[in-house]
Amino acid sequence: MDIQTLYHMKSKFIAREVGNELIIVPLSGNVAQMNVLFTMNETAKFIWENISEKTRVEDIENAMTDTFDIDKETAKKDILVFLTQMESFFSKK
Amino acid sequence: MDSQQHTLNIIIADFSIQLLSDSFIEPEEGYLPFMVDKFENEPDITIQCFAGLPKNPFENDVLVFEAENEVQKFYSIYKIGNELGFIIYNQQTKNNIQQIALLDSTFTQWKVYSKLSPDNQISALKYPLGPIVMLYMTLNSDAVLMHASCAYDGKSARLFSGFSGAGKSTISQLWAASGNSIINDDRIIIRKQQNGYFVHNTPMYYKDMPKKAPLSSIYLISHFPENKAKRITGALAISKVMAFCIQNNFDRQFIQSRLNFFSELCLQIPVYELGFVPDESVVNYVLANEAGRTK
Q1: Exposed, middle or buried, B262 (CB in 10 Å: 0-12/13-18/19+)?
Q2: Which H helix or E strand runs over B8?
Q3: What are the chain A neighbours of B255 within 8 Å (beta carbons)?
């Protein structure tokens, strides 16, 4: 899943911050007994919150290296892991 | 012609519900123990019941939600301005319309249209409309409707929730064999009231007295080779408990309200993942775990 696809899907979810984490809930379907809620750790929450209409992967990489004590390669890896997890989440929903 | 207005008063989870109709209202058997003669105050929910089904309901309105599985439909929800329209399908005859219902924007005033029975009675809360009324009654207050079983030892109510087949009924039978009373083994309401959170049973297809108990802990259960409990907190606990809440997630406000409720609940009530062996050992294990006597 690329960032633009994720941006368009983002509007179909409701998010709530809990400490440094984030819960997202889909705005359609019956979630009872479907286990489709998703929790994000601090890094994933940061990526989710920084995705906007024209965001590129490089923009988030830069924002992550500015915010966290990590290098670009780690940031890129974290973003890829995040996108893979989101793809898996959306495919289960 | 008989123009007498028939009234039926019900209290579920301390919510007062009044049904009114020109026709005789036949309560489902499970609602009988929840009926009262009168309320001390105005009812929280009013349901006006009418005989006969409107033709072609909601054909120009927006379909926002459908509750269905591979076999049949349960109900469909339409947005009509600020109101909601429900088409309720018969669960025996499959996909035939059983009732049409309208709910106002405050979620307190229902209009329900039902077919008259051969003896001129209305079965207004016939499944699945009864649980739908309960669901929307909780949305405007600090309460949720959940798939769960709950055991009460006279002091503490332990709630057990999980996927279908996880063992909700099994574990409640094990607690019952250990002297606990069972609030219900399938569907309950958790409500924040004075002095904390309480678990209430709801009318089922069988008769059972109204019950209420103070919630002390929540267990998300699954079958496992050994008894093993793990406390979970924060976003993980909230999301896992909320997944078993009965929801119609087509409205942002509904979801936000549920997220707020469960966030507060999970701060105050401990949540555990519990893998269990389906025998009496799980009861002793849970008690020992709560007392800090397990590794």
Answers
A1: buried
A2: strand B6-12
A3: 14, 25, 27
- Whether the complex's predicted ipTM is more than 0.85 is answered with no
Tens of pLDDT, residues A1-48: 788 888 888 887 888 888 888 888 877 655 444 455 678 888 889 999
Q: Which residue, B151, B157, B133, B116, is CA-closest to B44?
A: B133
Chain A residues whose beta carbon lies within 8 Å of the beta carbon of residue B258: 25
Q: Confirm or reject contact between B74 and chain A (CB < 8 A).
A: no
- Going along chain A from its start, the domains and CATH numbers come out as 3-92 (3.90.930)
* B249: contact with A, CB 8 A cutoff: yes
Handedness of CA B262, B266, B269, B272 (dihedral sign): positive
Q: Is B188 on the interface with A (CB under 8 A)?
A: no
* Distance in angstroms (rounded) separating the CA atoms of residues B94 and B87: 13
Can you list the residues of chain B whose pLDDT is less than 70?
1-3, 294-295
Distance CA B82, CA B85 (A): 10
Is B244's CB within 8 Å of A33's CB? yes
pLDDT in the model for residue A65: 95
**Model pTM?**
0.89
Q: What residues of chain B lie within 8 A of the CB of A37, using their CB?
A: 239-240, 242-243
Domains of chain B: 6-139 (no CATH), 143-290 (3.90.228.20)
pLDDT score recorded for residue B295: 62
